[in-house]
Amino acid sequence: MNNVLEIKGLCKRYEGFALENISFTLPQGVVMGFIGENGAGKTTTIKSILNLIRRDVGEIRVLGMDNIHDERAVKERIGVVLEDGGFLNTMNAREVNTLMGKAYQGWRPELFLGYMKRFGIDERKKIKDYSKGMRMKISIASALSHGAELLIMDEPTSGLDPIVRDEVLDLLYDFMQDERHAILLSSHITSDLDKIADCVTFIHAGRIVLSEPRDELLDTYGVLRCTADQLASLDPVAVRAKRIGAFGCEALVRRDGVPIGWPVEPVNIEQIMLFLTRGEDA
After folding, report:
1. What's the CA gap between 267 and 74, in Å, rounded?
2. What counts of helices (H) and strands (E) characterise the chain?
3. H/E element, 66
């Protein structure tokens, strides 16, 4: 299996914040959920991949190419969806079609217009007059209309109602029918990632905390609610993070490190993120 994205030792420093030694890989055929709280470094990482900001240190390879030296070739083979949509509000869908045709050698205008028809979008209407959901659909249609192999998406479902979010996820399912494709999906809506992500990479305070297959993550960990004495009796290796309150304790634990019969509850991506962000290290 080939990697469509490889990041090794990425560092980018600002006053008061820094990405520190970011490293992870995204293989073909995989949807990676990229999660973390606001300000954790998700958007800075994505902008580094897209060469919108220059890294201080590190290596980024996209589809086997260096993202700086091979920037033009990389651009032809990736689709990008940003939270703000990326187009001027005064443009309409026809003008987007013309603009993208000039920007990409592989642009397929008939495919883009097909998406507009599918979405029921009036091509003459200005983007500022569309709902946020319609603007996001135009952005996704643009990303899917030039033969992209990798989609890089920064909060594509943020602020959308559940019906539109589900329609967006359907588009991503369709894209992933080709096993050569992959998606890096940054989102704080973890319920979307529960539906579509194959693996999860969690960034916190500019550092990668974990990067693992989603199913393995959910099978490995669970939530234990217990007394302080019970928690103290566990092997520290079994306890990833904990919260201690006036009425007891809860902990993110490795299932294989908890005695049989103890009530370990299933965990989801959001709970894992909350424990690792707001809980105490074990």
Report:
1. 37
2. 10, 15
3. strand 65-66
Neighbours of 73 (CB within 10 A): 14
- pLDDT category at 84 given cuts 50, 70, 90 is low
H or E, element range at 49: helix 42-49
Q: How far, in Å, CA of 38 to CA of 52, rounded?
A: 19
Side-by-side strand order, sheet with 182-186: 78-81, 150-154, 182-186, 31-35, 199-204, 207-213
Tell me the per-residue pLDDT of 212-224, one tens digit each, with 9 for 90 and over: 999 999 999 999 9
- Token pair for 161: 């109602």
Rounded to 10 deg, the angle between the 109-119 and 132-143 helix axes is 150
Report the C-alpha gap between 50 and 60 in whole angstroms: 10
Report the predicted TM-score, pTM, of the whole model to 2 decimal places. Answer: 0.92
Say how far apart CA 211 and CA 197 lie, in whole Å.
12
List of E strands, 77-149: 78-81
Distance of CA 187 to the CA centre of its chain: 5
